[in-house]
Amino acid sequence: MIEIPYLFSFVPEAEIQIKEQPLPRLIISNWLVKKALSVFMFTLGYRKIWGTGDFEFGKPLGKGRFGAVYLAREKKTHFILALKVIFKSVLEKAQLEHQLRREIEILSHLRHPNILRMYNYFHDRTRIFLMLEYAPGGELYKELQKNHRFDDSRTATYIEEISDALMYCHAQKVIHRDIKPENLLLGLRGELKLADFGWSVHTLSLRRTTLCGTTDYLAPEMIEGSPHDENVDVWCVGILCYECLAGYAPFEAPTRMETFRRIKEVNFKFPPWISEGAKDLIAKVLNRTPFMRLPLKEIMEHPWVKTKSRRILPPVYNEVET
C-alpha cells in the first residue's frame, strides 16, 4: 500500500483556475505511443513532486459531483494524459475521503492493458489531481447510445477484455463492484479500459455486505444485503453482455423496487435478435447463486466469445516495461 500522509488536510475551497489551451492535433502511431510512454515513464521515475505548472490543460473530458477530468499535456515530454481534478471540500462534505484513498491505493498497483492506468497523483491546498491514462475513445456508454446496440463481434471482444481485466483484479484480491458502461472507456485502438475504482475493495478473506454500484447492475446478493465476493463482478459481465447486444439492461423497470424484484427473481427475456450462443453465455453468467456463475476464465473460453471476439493486445503493453 502507498502512503498518503497529508492528502486530506482540508482548507477552505478556492476557485479553480485552469486555463484551457488548444492542444495540437495528435498524429498517433504505435511507435509514437511507445516512445512517448517510455520517455514519460522515465520522467515519472525521477520526478518526486508534481504540480499544475507541469501541465498544459486542454478541453474538459467530463464532469462529476466531485470535480472534472481534463485533457492535459506534460510540458517536458509532451505526453498526453487525463487529469482528474477533485475538490477536497466536496469530498469532505460527502465523507468520502477514505474512498478516494482506497481508490488511489488500489489503482497504484494495477497494471493491465484493459485497466485505465493511474501514473501518479498530487495535490494543492484545495484540490487533488489524479494523473490518468488518456482514453481517446471516451465512454462505452456514449458509444452504445450512439449505436443503440453492438453486434456479436464487438460485444464478444468487450466481454473478453473485461473478463481478462477482472480476472487480473481478482488475482490481486480486488473487487471492482461498479461495472457499467459509464465506467468503461475506449482506448486508442478501441480496446476496453476498466476505470473508476471508487467502489472497489481489497477482498482479502472478508466477504462484504455494502450495497454499492448502479441499480441495473446490482447482483441479487447485494440487494438482499448478503455477504458478497468477487462473483458480483461476474454478474456484471452478464449484464454488460446483455446490454451491449440488446441496447438496454435485462432487468430495467419503471421503478427501482421493480428492478430489484426482477433481479432477485432473475426475471428477464431475450429480444429475438440475440444469437443462441450469446443467450447461452448470458444465462450461465446470470445465475442467482454466486458460486454457480460461469467463472471469468470460462467466459473467455466460451465458444461464442472464442469465435466472435476480435481482441488484439496493444503492442505498447507487450514491449514497454512499465
Key terms:
single chain; about 325 residues; alpha+beta; five-stranded antiparallel sheet; three-stranded antiparallel sheet; 12 helices; globular; EC 2.7.11.1; Ser/Thr_kinase_AS; Kinase-like_dom_sf
What is the β-strand count? 10
State the major sheet: 5 strands, antiparallel
Alpha-carbon distance between the termini? 18 Å
Enumerate the spans where pLDDT stays under 50 for 5 or more consecutive residues.
1-18, 318-322
Global shape = globular
| SSE series | HEEEHHEEEHHEEEEHHHHHHH
The proportion of strand residues reads 15-25%
Average pLDDT level: 84
Q: Report Rg.
A: 20 Å
Report the structural category: alpha+beta
How helix-rich are the residues, as a percent range? 25-40%
Explain the overall architecture.
The protein has 322 residues and is of the alpha+beta class. Helix content is 37%, strand content 15%. The protein is built from 12 helices and 10 strands. It has helices at residues 30-46, 88-94, 97-107, 140-147, 152-171, 220-223, 231-246, 256-265, 276-285, 296-300, 303-308, 315-319, and strands spanning 55-63, 67-74, 80-87, 118-123, 127-132, 138-139, 174-175, 184-186, 192-194, 201-202. Strands 1-2-3-5-4 form a 5-stranded antiparallel sheet. Strand 2 (67-74) and strand 3 form a beta hairpin. The radius of gyration is 20 Å and the shape is globular. Residues 1-18 and 318-322 have low confidence and may be disordered. Its EC number is 2.7.11.1.
